[in-house]
Structure formats: structure tokens, C-alpha cells
Amino acid sequence: MDAKTAILEQKTALGIEFGSTRIKAVLIGADNAPIASGDHEWENRYDNGVWTYTLEDIWTGLQDAYTKMAADVKEKYDITLTRVGAIGFSAMMHGYMAFDKAGNLLVPFRTWRNNITEEASEKLTDLFGFHIPQRWTIAHLYQAILNGEPHVADIDYVTTLAGYIQWKMTGERVVGVGEASGIFPIDSETNTYFADMIAKFDEAVADKAYSWKALDVLPHVLTAGDNAGVLTKEGAALLDMSGNLEAGIPLCPPEGDAGTGMAATNSVRVRTGNVSAGTSVFAMIVLEKNLSKVYPEIDMVTTPSGHPVAMVHCQNCTSDLNAWVNLFREFAQTFGMEISTSDLFGKLYNKALEGDADCGGLLAYNYFSGEHVTGFNEGRPVFARTPDAKFNLANFMRVNLFTSLGALKVGLDILMKEEHVQVDQILGHGGLFKTKGVGQKILAGAIDAPVSVMETAGEGGAWGIALLASYMINKEENETLEDYLDAKVFAGNAGTKMDPDPADVAGFEVFTERYKKGLPIERAAVESLK
Predict the structure, then answer these.
(1) Inter-axis angle of helices 393-404 and 502-517, to 10 degrees?
(2) Under 8 Å CB-to-CB from 313, ≥6 apart: which residues?
């Protein structure tokens, strides 16, 4: 079935994901391949000590991305888009959006990037015997309680960005299980929140005498394939400013960028894994068995079907790298040279492959914000070198690529070297992999394992949530998500595989030791630049 017929017959699925720097809409056809897209660039704000996006940022960005996607459909196929087969929404996981009974946002959206819940994180981890990262929704809620913030008494609903969008589109207070696993710990036996931990939380805050219990204000949990409501007239009007989009379209459970990354890389089976590398970077490994103990560097989440996943989530990846590339752009413009973005990144990234395996002794920290894996609540980007280090462009670009994965390697070394987790394949996706072969080669060296990248890697999570929407309406009876992806999406497409270069592996080990030893430099930078 060609794309135009798929659109006319509503054999399509639309996925929209709110990434850290881009909101992207991807429409896929009956064969699950992208047929139209649109995006909107945005940036978080640091306002009164909190990383946030305003509600205006959220809605104008969503509407712009949808409008561009619909315009792409009109230009390519001469069709005014009025319906699709299904819709899925996704967003960067975690964070805190609290609403009162009237639907008013009680405090500005607190995103995953905030490291302001250390006390709550530690107390909940002790209470549950389960690692609760600072960015998790329940940590934000409990920290607000510990802070004595008056808005907590007025809470009627607490959710994430993906859950908020779903609520406004359908009226349903639901999230997918993968997204839920970044809100509160999930029991993979029941695919919902651990009942005993919910009880412990309610008991811990009982003295506050709030009118609500945890289950009253948290979103309901669904799994991949479940129907998560239909687009209301109000939702359609919010999404499509032209008024052409019709109500009644089914929506799949909203998922976080971790879950959509797993779907987009076919990494939902046991012994598979993926690395999503953009503004932040995280690795997801689907486990055969539970880890032997709790690690503060490792988060336990789930696939969109509810299988347990070990997650190494790092706050920082390409932001500092992009800043350096933009500095080189400014340099070129000063001399009257205009260089395309793809050429600029391509040339500089490939230059890194000419550098010394260990980056010539250079050291860098890409900490735009705090980094919990290495114990930082705040960050300061730092580049350092000794006078005798080999300081040239190749090594400079190489060290900035290495450090984009530096904290990730610290966490993955725990899984691979201490827990001896076995992985059959790792797939990479996200912006780091857009320059062919470079990010893939660096990652393979970092983890000492083969890395595959698919042609769809650049589509990322928007395509992943579109696949989950497609699965909901197109799955056979009792067909699992794993089987659906294998047979109907990725059949014959395992991606381009790259084995680790022993020189890169050895070089990354040397760099990692330097990275760990140099952490006091980063701490000094944080203290001295306050």
C-alpha cells in the first residue's frame, strides 16, 4: 500500500515526542515506515533555580510540529489531513507537573534535569529498598512535602509531561508502564505500582493529613497495546490549529523517551539493549534476572510491555559538544564562510577519528547540569589539559565525544563488570548517531560490545511512539510487542553493525580512569563558579 492510499484509508499512525530540544511529529504508513514529519525546536529555561518549560512553550511547540507535519502531507500527497489510524504521545521521562481540581498547574513544570530532590531521593530509597533517582516524579512530590510547599495540599493530579498531554487530548489520566516506571517503582508481576511501596508512602505522609492518597493523584498504568482513550474535540482543537483534525481517533498509552527508544531500536526482548544519545544519554538493558543489589547509579524501569530494565541515565550528553561545534561555526562565519549544519558536524566528528586513542591526555566534563551517576547536583562544563598533552583539533573533538559518554560508561561498567549482565545486541539512536559511523564507533569502544545503528536512528522516539500506536490498532490476537516488532517492523533490518576497535576500547579505559581521577577538578569548578 502506497503512502497516499494509507493516508486516505487511515492506515497510518502518528507519533509525537517532546524531546529536550525538539518536538517531533512522525506519520507512518501501513508498512510502519515514516511518510511525513514536522518538528519544532525548543529549549528549557532556568527560572528561579528550576529547569522548566512553560505551558505556552509546550502548546505552541506541539502545534507547530503538528502543523509542519500536516503541511508535509499536503505537499507530498495533496491531502488535507483529517484523520489518522491512531496517535501516540511521548516525552522526556520523569519530572513533576501538579494540578488542582480545576486543572490549574500549581507550580512551574519541574523537568528531569533538576537535581533538587536529594533528601527525598535518599529517604525514599531507604523506605522502599529500591533506588529512587532525584528526577523521578515521586521524588519531586516527596521533596515538595518535605519542603512544606503549600501547593501539595491542593493537588488533585500529579503526572509527567507525556501524561499531561494525554490527559488534555483524551481526558484520561493514564500513562504507559514504561513511563510509569519513572514515576513510581513498577512491579513487573502486576504491571502497576508496587502495592507495598504505595502503602509505605501513604504511611510516611499520613501525619500531613492530606485529602488524597498516592493512588488518588498518580496516573493509572497501562501496557503496550491497551487503548488509552480517544481524541476529544477539545484535544483535536488543541493539537490542530487549522481545525481539520477530527475527534474520535484512538490513542495508545503515552510513553517516555526510554520506552520509545526501546521500540525504535527493537530492544524490548531480554538480552537486548539500546543507547539513546542526545541532550541526555541513557542505556537500557532488558534483564534476564534482577540485579544482586541496589545501585545508586542504576535505575530499574520497564519496557512498554512491563519487562524489567536496568537503566543508566545521565543528565548530560551533547549540549557541551554542540556548544563547541557552534563556536567553530561562529569562527567560520567571522571569516565569511557559511557551512551547513550536517557538513559542520560531519567534518568535526570525523576529525575525532584521527585523534589518539586516549584523546592525547586531554580531559573534559560536559556537565551543563548536575550528574547523579558521579554525584553532582550542579554542573559546570570544563575542559582541562596538562602542558604536555597532545592538544590538536582531532584530540579536542575526540575528548568531547568521549566525555559525552563518560558518565554513561561509569554506570555501564557496573552492569557489565560487576553484575556480568549479558547483552546480545546494543542499538544506538538519537542525535549523536546522525553522523554516520562516528558516534557508533565511539560507543562500541566505550562498552566493548558491537553496536548497530539503523537507518531510522535519526527518527528516534517520535517513530518509536508511532510504532506503539500502530501496534495497538494492528496487532493480531495475543501478538506480543516483541513479535510485532520483529515480524512487521524490523524483519530483515538489523541495522549496520560495528564491532569495537581494540584500540578504542583500550583508549576509552585510559580516558575513563583519567575521568574518574579528575572529578575533583569538576567539583572545584562547581564551587568556584557559584
Answers:
(1) 80
(2) 133, 135, 258, 280, 282, 299, 373
Q: How many residues in total does the chain contain?
A: 530
Kindly state the cell numbers that stand for 514.
583519567
Nearest CA to 325 among 311, 339, 312?
A: 339
- Between the alpha carbon of residue 240 and those of residues 32, 387, 423, the distances in Å are 23, 57, 42
For 47, phi then psi, to 5°, come to -125, 115
C-alpha to C-alpha distance for 92 and 317, rounded to whole angstroms: 14
Alpha-carbon span 290 to 303, nearest angstrom: 14
Question: Could you give the C-alpha distances from 81 to 27, 28, 121, 472, in angstroms and in order?
Answer: 11, 13, 45, 21
Element holding 393 (H helix, E strand): helix 393-404
| 109 close to 96: Cβ distance less than 8 angstroms | yes
Angle, CA 371 vertex, CA 430 and CA 310 arms, to 5°? 60
CA distance linking residue 429 with residue 261, whole number of Å? 7
Pure H helices in 147-211? 161-170, 177-180, 195-204
Return the amino acid letter for 527.
Answer: E
Distances (CA, A) of 358 to 4, 93, 141, 516: 51, 33, 43, 14
DSSP 207: G
Q: Band of the pLDDT at 459, cuts 50, 70, 90? A: low
State the Cα–Cα distance between residues 393 and 402, nearest whole angstrom: 14
With a CB cutoff of 8 Å and minimum separation 6, the contacts of 45 are 51, 52, 53, 54, 57
Distance CA 379, CA 321 (A): 15
On the CB side of 235, how many CA atoms lie within 13 Å of its CA? 21
Check residue 254 and give its pLDDT: 98
Q: What is the dihedral of CA 118, 167, 53, 330, to 10 degrees?
A: 120
CA dihedral 424, 429, 432, 438 (to 10 degrees): 50
> Of the given ranges (409-413, 421-425, 479-483), which has the lowest mean pLDDT?
421-425
Give me the helices (H) in 205-266, please. Answer: 214-217, 233-239, 257-264
Q: Which amino acid is at 373?
A: V
Owner of C-alpha cell 543528565? 315
Closest by alpha carbon to 312, among 162, 177, 443, 161?
443
Q: How far apart are CA 285 and CA 305, in angstroms?
A: 14
Q: Nearest CA to 358 among 321, 395, 317?
A: 395
Give the rounded percent of residues in the chain with a pLDDT score beyond 90: 85
Positive or negative, the Cα torsion across 323, 324, 330, 333? negative
Collapsing DSSP to helix, strand or coil, 157 comes out as strand
CA-based R_g, the chain, Å: 22
* Bridge partners of residue 157, in order along the sequence: 99
